[in-house]
Please model this.
Amino acid sequence: MLNTKKTALRFLLISFILVLVVCISIREFTVYYEEMHKISDIFSTTKNVSYKEIESDFKSFKQCQISTGENIHNFYLIKSYKAASSTLSNMLYRYGLKHGLSFVEPQDTTTNQIFPFSHLDTAANYPLIPSCDKVYNLSTIHSRFEGKDKLEKTMPIGTIIIASVRNPISQFRSSFNYFDTGKRLEKKGVNFARFIEDPLKFSRMYLGFPKEFVILEEPKELLLWNQQSQVFGLYDFKIPVGIGRKNILENKNYQMKIEKFLERVDREVDFVFMAEDFIESMAIFREMFGLEYSDVAHFKINLMSRNNSVETLTQQQQDQIIEFCYIDWLLYQKMLVKFEKIKLNLRYDLKYEIDIIQRLNARIAQYCVKPNQYKTDQSEMMLPDLNEAGEKDVCCQRIVEQEWILNHIIRT
Model:
């Protein structure tokens, strides 16, 4: 009986010690885990991404002037207005400056933002700043894509053609705000609701657009209609820029031309960024072409202030935009299918890749900019607001710069 009691006491003592050891171990692990991850809220959503990994990528960001000499590509950007193209331009400028690449830049600075601005016209009428090795590696300016054959007169064979597209409804609204169309119309007593009821009429009356929208030559001003299709090369197919959905559906000739236009875009564009899924697009782009995470880290560039924008659209207004931007709508649907096909062939964890970019963006913001991140300038643009450390760091300066400033850096 005594031996039984001793055995029971010994068992209880051993059990108590084991429980105590387990509790201490759990506590020590918890403290260790908290210390390893107690850095910022940016590391609180996904356990797979480690602090060390983000810090390694952040270190790479701070070495923005040091080229690894690996995975160097030639890129041509089809720069669509108000479709995240300024952010893409910033990324490509940084990529080019880091690796010492040459840029397509016209000698006359007044032609840098001209539209449409084709590479064929560049060679003939707008001489480029000479490249040291007579090769141009990157094009990020506003230009009109005219097909690979004409592009190769300026850039190397095999240049990777990338583009961005945006839902035509939100893109039209953003362009309307960005180009101050509303302010110009307000002077004539026309608000957005009235304008969108018959945009062709009011454009002819007050915005100086042609009376006939069967435009075969370059207009003096960028048109709001099918704006994305214009830079993708719509003019090459002799398709009226301002033709609406109804007229297209009634005209088989236009349908055939639009189909050929979309086929060329689908065939010759190597990668498309979807503005609505921008970080997802960045993650796939980085993996596809072997770029570093620091290469695709970014701030949004050229954001418009909420004080200067038409935000809410009725369903009728949205339908009206699609009616007048129907070619853009078809282009957007075509690029969306292309993007989804790329996603179907992925063989890696896309969510993990997105997490890294988001956290690296947050880590860079933590280091470079003030807590509120953005400030509004005199033109009502929202710009990243650098803090004291960011003002002294060239890598911080580059990642927040608008393209015209980076363009000046390249020229000088």
Notes: The mean pLDDT is 81. Residues 2-37 form the longest helix (36 residues). Strands lie at 75-78, 138-139, 160-165, 271-274, 303-304, 369-376, 381-386.
